[in-house]
Specification:
Layout lengths: L6 H4 L7 E4 L3 H12 L5 E4 L11 E4 L2 E4 L13 H8 L5 H4 L1 H5 L10 E5 L7 H19 L12 H15 L4 H22 L30 H8 L7 E2 L4 E5 L16 E5 L4 E4 L1 E4 L3 H11 E2 L4 H9 L1 E3 L1 E7 L11 E5 L13 H4 L6 E4 L3 H4 L2 E7 H7 L4 H16 L9 E4 L12 E3 L6 H8 L14 E3 L12 H19 L10
Helix pairs in contact: 2-17, 6-8, 11-16
The structure holds FAD-MDL72527 adduct.
FAD-MDL72527 adduct binds next to helix 2, helix 8, strand 13, strand 18 and helix 17.
Length: about 525
């Protein structure tokens, strides 16, 4: 593990009791770092029966599929997950190559795409290239407002729509081609909704959009599943450090709590679990998802969170991106295709209608990602969709989803005899009571300052009370890498380092991972 100067070697006296709530990437990162720094009284409380949180690799078809995080976004030296995965030797040769690390692809699924229309036709490369290039240009332009003091409109959606309308006026194509271009742009909107985990780009704030940092590197996956990272992080931790099925109900802070039957000093924090157990601690690192905090902020802390923090929790966005994996007996797609896009010819980003969820939820699916290599996964397609439609999908049965998607596939391929998929597995992140969605985004009315406000430890001001009683980590607390595993990991490390610096204010510790 780490070559770290142990804080116990330097200052063996205080060994505070530290509780980490949540055993996802952020919680594990914090635990790993605290132990490396020499803290020994560390305990993780996890609501569910497993580690990983929004990293969840499950057996399906021939291999493992990712119910949550799938790719290392920007696998290169500055990416903490890439660093750790390389150190644990979890990636294949291609991902490790200098060439892979140097390329920039802007967070989209890598590979060759096919574009099928709702009337069962294929769209040729010429029009696809023109539209994808236009969208990339607009997307880059939308990120420039981060550096400027003013923005023309509040949301990313409004900005893109104004730009598209302006460009469309200059198109010289016939009406059918213009409509097809708009329909293709609508697929880009759906993709952007999935990337941001939002219902609509009208909800995403324009000004802070460019603050999210995209790292170089063609996105890659873990050959042994994302879970191989979680397993590798768990391995060096002391046995029993994680208590599973241990949901925390309330964090009582700013108090003076005694451990039962001991003469120990009193603790500022008392963690109350749903099963009634209470655990005193000097420090608590909260890594629960923003979706959980949005629902429970009123009761999750006593005294309640300061108004400034509540305001930021409410303002920041947290939406759903769901996945549906389908296994087929035989592939009906061409082997070179990595993504089969679904282009509804009657759609356009310039036409805003509220969908009838019951009848049209599947229209939000942008397409099917082909899991490759086939030898590892079997014949598996992955459909992704975001927002209200993704939430609605969770209320349907497996066979309803399977039947519906088969109809869609038959229609778009023009092949009515494609058989039903053999099996299905899907995510339900919105109804997951300890997550309540997929990941965070800067919603209209919020900014990076809200992310920093959520990350601020309690108490907020230096009073006589013990500092750093409650600390906050998790993807939604990382200003430039929110919504990713590398953001979550860095946030866990950040809070562990914060505690370490607090106990050793004048000592510089060289921690190497
Ligand atoms: C990435 C990717 N990826 C797809 C989907 C999802 C996510 N992400 P955790 O939730 O993991 O842990 C908290 C724990 O707390 C958890 O175990 C709970 O059970 C527990 N808990 C809750 N309440 C509790 C209580 N009361 N008591 C005790 N325990 C409690 N990231 O790097 N690559 O491909 C994807 C994707 C469907 C759902 C993703 C991806 C996001 C990551 O999964 C996520 O950030 C981290 O795992 C979170 O870790 P954590 O520890 O913070 O929380 C410009 C611009 C745009 C900005 N966005 C662009 C980026 C695109 C990101 N897109 C991701 C897309 C995919 C496909």
């Amino acid at each position: 593990m780490a070559e770290a100067t142990s804080r116990r070697e330097l200052d063996p006296d205080p060994d505070p009791s530290i509780i980490i709530i949540g055993c996802g990437v952020a919680g594990l990162g914090a635990a790993q770092r605290l132990l490396q720094h020499g803290f020994s009284r560390v305990r993780l409380l996890e609501a569910t029966e497993r580690s990983g949180g929004r990293v969840w690799s499950r057996p399906f078809a021939n291999g493992l599929v990712e119910i949550g995080a799938q790719w290392i976004h920007g696998p290169s030296k500055q990416n903490a997950v890439f660093q750790l995965a390389s150190q644990y030797d979890l990636l294949d040769e291609k991902a490790m190559s200098e060439n892979n690390q140097a390329r920039q692809i802007d967070g989209r699924p890598p590979g060759v795409s096919a574009y099928c229309t709702s009337s069962g036709k294929r769209i040729g490369p010429e029009i696809v290239v023109a539209v994808t290039e236009l969208y990339s240009t607009l997307s880059l332009k939308s990120k420039e407002f981060f550096q400027s003091k003013t923005e023309p409109v509040l949301s990313l959606g409004e900005f893109l729509k104004l730009e598209i309308a302006r460009c469309a006026e200059e198109w010289k194509d016939d009406e059918e081609t213009c409509n097809l271009k708009l329909a293709l742009l609508n697929v880009e909107f759906k993709m952007e909704c999935c990337i941001s985990g939002t219902d609509s780009l009208d909800l995403v704030a324009l000004q802070p959009f460019g603050e999210y940092l995209t790292l170089p590197g063609i996105d890659c996956v873990f050959p042994g599943g994302f879970k191989s990272l979680i397993d590798a992080m768990m391995k060096p931790l002391p046995k029993g450090i994680v208590s599973y099925n241990k949901p925390v109900k309330c964090i009582h802070w700013n108090g003076s709590f005694k451990a039962s039957n001991t003469q120990e000093h009193s603790y500022s924090v008392l963690v109350e679990c749903e099963d009634g157990e209470t655990i005193p601690a000097d420090h608590v690192i909260v890594t629960v998802p923003l979706g959980f905090l949005k629902e429970h902020y009123k009761t999750f802390l006593r005294p309640p969170l300061p108004a400034s923090k509540i305001n930021s929790i409410q303002k920041l966005g947290f939406g759903t991106n769901n996945k549906i994996f389908l296994e087929f007996e035989e592939p009906f797609w061409e082997p070179e295709h990595h993504l089969i896009n679904l282009v509804w010819e009657d759609e356009s980003p310039l036409l805003s209608t509220r969908p009838d969820l019951q009848k049209e939820w599947f229209r939000k699916i942008l397409g099917f990602i082909v899991l490759q290599p086939m030898e590892r996964y079997g014949h598996v397609l992955l459909a992704v969709l975001a927002g209200e439609e993704a939430n609605f999908m969770e209320s349907l049965s497996d066979s309803e989803v399977k039947n519906c998607l088969t109809q869609v596939i038959r229609r778009f391929t023009g092949n009515p005899s494609i058989p039903l998929p053999k099996s299905i597995i899907r995510s339900k992140w919105y109804s997951d009571r300890y997550t309540k969605g997929s990941y965070s985004y800067t919603a209209v009315g919020s900014s990076g300052d809200d992310i920093d406000a959520i990350a601020q430890p309690l108490p907020l001001t230096s009073t006589k009370a013990q500092p750093l009683q409650v600390l906050f980590a998790g993807e939604a607390t990382h200003r430039t890498f929110y919504s990713t595993t590398h953001g979550a990991l860095e946030s866990g490390w950040r809070e562990a380092d914060r505690l370490n610096n607090h106990y050793l204010p004048f000592t510089s510790i060289n921690t190497k991972l």
